[in-house]
Specification:
Blueprint lengths: L8 H4 L8 H17 L9 H10 L9 H4 L2 H10 L11 H13 L10 H8 L7 H17 L13 E8 L8 H8 L2 E4 L1 E5 L5 E5 L5 E5 L8 E10 L5 E7 L8 E5 L6 E6 L2 E7 L13 E8 L2 E8 L4 E9 L11 E6 L3 E12 L5 H7 L3 H13 L7 H18 L3 H17 L3 H17 L3 H14 L4 H19 L6 H18 L4 H21 L4 H15 L8 H20 L14 H13 L11 H13 L3 H14 L2 H18 L4 H16 L5 H14 L4 H14 L10 H13 L4 H12 L14 H4 L8
Antiparallel strand pairs: 1-15, 2-5, 3-4, 4-15, 5-14, 6-11, 6-15, 7-8, 7-14, 8-9, 9-10, 11-12, 12-13
Helix pairs in contact: 2-5, 2-8, 3-10, 5-6, 6-8, 10-11, 11-12, 12-13, 12-14, 13-14, 14-15, 14-16, 16-17, 16-18, 17-18, 18-19, 19-20, 20-21, 21-22, 22-23, 23-24, 24-25, 24-26, 25-26, 26-27, 27-28, 28-29
Length: 795
């Protein structure tokens, strides 16, 4: 039958030397059992759990009413065919078929011994009620007489495919409508609607903000398998993912293969949400074009998950990677396949899965199922046997597996030390560099768990050296080190300072040693800077040195190389901008000859943020305060072009409230530079007032209305001061030049007087720039006349 429930016990135990014709006899007996009872011979939550039951089962699990419904002779035939020991089964399918024919004739069967009286009585009985079942079984037996002679026809043999399931065809147009609908019903769709393309192909159009999610309802990600999927996406603005081992209940799948991970041409393999392998596609941007289709191939074999991605145009290989998982997570409950896409539409077709027979040993089956306690005994038994010098690598794998069992069950440090001892022996025995690298990596994680970071970093370096020719494993080593740092940086409570110091070591190691994955370097630098800045507040004595190191790390990220990693690049520049602003604010005096010199880097950072604002997966919210502040900085230097560009970005990508404030800032800029006529400027303010009147009232809209009415109607300075002062007391003042209420309102009053009373306005600007805090207005101090636009001839 090709499924675990119908495997023979020797196949389930991985005893390849015992697999033969009598294994087929067992499968036939199991099939007959199902035909008679309506139940499978073994049930379980996963394929591995079923295999464990099959391996240990001594006789068929008959239902309670079997003795009443099923004749004893027929039960005896099934039981003889399903003996746990192959030697006790029928010698051949022919012998079993002959016994079934005897039963149909009412003769005695060889599977059951009898007295002469019971044999005589049996001859006069006929079992018409089960004749149809026996006929089916007999025909199957006849078929097995042929297939048993051909080893290649035994589809349950290790390494060969058990069956090939077409989950979705490559060409749906060739299918009858009812068949296509039946297949479609097996898929669960969220966040999209089903549409039809010109060629009758189905595609899924996004229907809301959530990504498109398409999930196959039946469990197919179990055992060793190969899965193929052909797909395309339009206007992919984020991740397009294959979910291997998804759960019916939702949540993170066992493995998520992500295309567009942090950059449009980057991929990741994540285990339970944690990235473990990453790589870059050989494309300048997203691999999803207007007519581009991709084919993904995923193969699970034991502890390894292999992934390949090809473009159908020219069969071009785009990605190859293997994840060697120390603790495989495919098990009952995480055994479905799904796809998700942060895109306008998704087309999926040509989906198939094939499961392979396995020669997996009993201890490996137990380990892969997560039954580490039960796996220890057979592992110890095999390790204690005589060592074969020619099979050192196999012995190293046994020690490696035993170490992981001990580690998974460890309740104290002494047991972790025992796991390290097994890893040391595995390293000594291993002849394969990739296996050695995996063991060194696992040892590093245990050393870190024990708090021995120096040892952990040495082990990480050794792992990296052994994995030098394996790009995917090198990526896994660096990402695991990054994960270690992030785990330590998340520690709260009394031990936080010590944990942050430890985290910095791992972040620095990744940043200094990872030459292939720019995103990991970018994130490591950013995480290290954040940790150092927090340590600076916890340890004031070393604060200056820590802040200096943090700034150096953030400056590293300024490189154009990292601009495509919008999720980290923008926030990193924003953090550096705020650090520079803090330094600028505490300066008691600005250089008289060039007061903007200390702020030049902030202007540079704002320009970089503006250029990267639309980078892949960038988030605009962290950039907004920086760009607004930078626009004030540019405006105080009469650089209206850059200020206009940055405020326009804020209006375009910010929230609806931010867009209104950015609009008001652009109108203030027009007042500063006296752009257009006074009537035109007043008309723009009046339009803003009308638009605000249509919105629900809030402190923010009240402040904007007060400002807009001040410039569009007869000015009421008292109302302006009251409303704005109240709003500024409760909100961050970056929309208002980071100034206190009085200086900012003096600045507004000066702007209102500028067209008609220039000298009075200049005096008010100087007044606004004088107090502390005047925010960015302090840059006008003693330079108002140079800053003001040239006076028009008509006044």
């Amino acid at each position: 039958m090709g499924t675990p429930a119908y495997m023979s016990p020797e196949q389930a135990r991985g005893e390849r030397n015992r697999v033969g014709k009598r294994s087929d006899i067992y499968a036939l007996g199991a099939t007959l059992f199902t035909l008679l009872t309506g139940k499978r011979p073994a049930e379980g939550g996963s394929a591995y759990e079923v295999m464990l039951k099959v391996a240990a089962q001594q006789s068929p699990p008959w239902p309670k009413d079997a003795h009443e419904r099923i004749p004893a002779d027929l039960r005896a035939i099934v039981e003889m065919a399903m003996q746990n020991d192959p030697a006790k089964r029928y010698e051949s399918a022919k012998a079993m078929a002959e016994d079934l024919e005897r039963f149909l004739r009412g003769d005695w069967v060889t599977a059951r011994s009898r007295t002469w009286l019971s044999k005589a009585w049996h001859r006069v009985r006929r079992y018409a009620a089960v004749a149809a079942v026996i006929a089916v079984s007999a025909s199957l037996s006849a078929g097995l007489i042929i297939t048993s002679m051909n080893p290649n026809a035994n589809t349950a043999r290790p390494g060969e495919f058990l069956h090939d399931t077409k989950i979705w065809p490559s060409d749906e147009s060739a299918m009858p409508g009812d068949a296509a609908q039946a297949l479609s019903d097996k898929w669960q769709l969220q966040g999209a609607t089903l549409e039809r393309a010109a060629g009758s192909e189905r595609f899924y159009a996004r229907s809301g903000e959530a990504p498109i999610m398409l999930a196959y309802r039946e469990p197919i990600c179990w055992g060793d398998f190969e899965l193929e999927c052909q797909f395309s996406a339009t206007e992919a603005k984020g991740e397009v993912s294959l979910l291997i081992g998804a759960s019916e209940a939702g949540g993170e799948p066992a493995y998520r293969i992500v295309i567009g991970a942090e950059a449009s041409n980057r991929f990741e393999i994540r285990r339970m949400g944690r990235p473990l392998v990453a790589g870059v596609l050989p494309t300048s941007g997203s691999p999803f074009g207007p007519s581009t289709e991709l084919r993904a191939w995923v193969a699970r074999s034991g502890e390894s998950l292999r992934f390949e991605l090809r473009s159908l145009a020219g069969d071009l290989m785009l990605a190859q990677a293997t994840l060697d998982d120390a603790y495989p997570t495919l098990h009952s409950g995480h055994d479905r396949f799904a796809m998700s896409a942060d895109a306008k539409s998704l087309l999926v077709r040509g989906v198939s899965v094939r499961h392979r027979g396995s020669e997996t040993s009993r201890e490996t089956v137990l380990f892969l199922e997560g039954n580490y306690a039960s796996a220890r005994s057979p592992l110890l038994a095999r390790i204690s046997g005589p060592a074969d010098p020619a099979r050192r690598n196999e012995r190293a794998q046994l020690h490696f597996m035993l170490g992981r069992c001990i580690e998974a069950l460890a309740a104290d440090d002494s047991q972790l030390e025992a796991a390290l001892s097994e890893y040391s022996e595995a390293k000594r025995q291993a002849q394969d560099a990739r296996l050695r690298a995996r063991v060194f990596l696992k040892a590093a994680l245990v050393e870190a768990r024990l708090g021995r970071d120096e040892n952990a970093l040495i082990q990480l370096a050794a792992a990296r050296n052994n994995a030098e020719t394996h790009v995917d494993l090198t990526s896994q080593i660096h990402l695991q080190a990054l994960n270690l740092g992030q785990g330590l940086a998340a520690v709260a409570g009394e031990g936080r300072a010590a944990a942050l110091l430890r985290a910095v070591r791992y972040f620095d190691w990744v940043a200094q040693n990872n030459l292939r994955d720019g995103y990991a370097v970018c994130e490591a630098q950013f995480e290290a800077a954040n940790a150092r800045l927090e340590l600076a507040t916890l340890n004031p004595d070393e604060g200056e040195a820590l802040r200096s190191e943090a700034i150096s790390g953030l400056r590293w990220i300024k490189s154009e190389v990292y601009r495509g990693y919008g999720r980290v690049y923008g926030p990193a520049l924003a953090r550096l901008f705020e650090l520079r602003r803090a330094q600028f604010e505490v300066r008691p005096e600005l250089p008289a000859d060039d007061p903007f010199a200390p702020a030049n880097e902030m202007l540079e950072l704002a320009q970089l943020m503006a250029e990267g604002a639309t980078a892949f997966q960038s988030r605009f919210e962290p950039l907004l305060p920086c760009l607004v502040r930078a626009s004030w900085l540019a405006r105080m230097n009469a650089d209206s072009d850059r200020a206009t560009r940055w405020l326009t970005l804020c209006r375009q990508y910010g929230s609806s409230e931010s867009a209104l404030w950015a609009r008001a800032q652009l109108l203030l800029l027009a007042e500063e530079r006296q752009q257009g006529s006074a009537e035109e400027r007043a008309g723009s303010w009046s339009t803003l007032t009308q638009d605000l009147a249509r919105l629900e009232r809030s402190p923010s809209t009240d402040a904007l209305v007060a400002m807009a009415e001040f410039f569009s109607r007869e000015p009421n300075e008292q109302t302006l001061r009251r409303v704005l002062a109240d709003w500024l007391k409760k909100n961050d003042p970056w929309w208002c030049a980071d100034a206190a209420p009085d200086p900012f309102i003096d600045y507004l009053v000066a702007l209102r007087k500028l067209p008609t009373r220039r000298s009075d306005a200049a005096a008010l600007f100087e007044k606004a720039a004088a107090p502390v805090p005047a925010g960015w207005l302090r840059l006008l101090r003693k330079r108002v006349d140079a800053w003001l636009p040239q006076e028009r001839p008509n006044g």
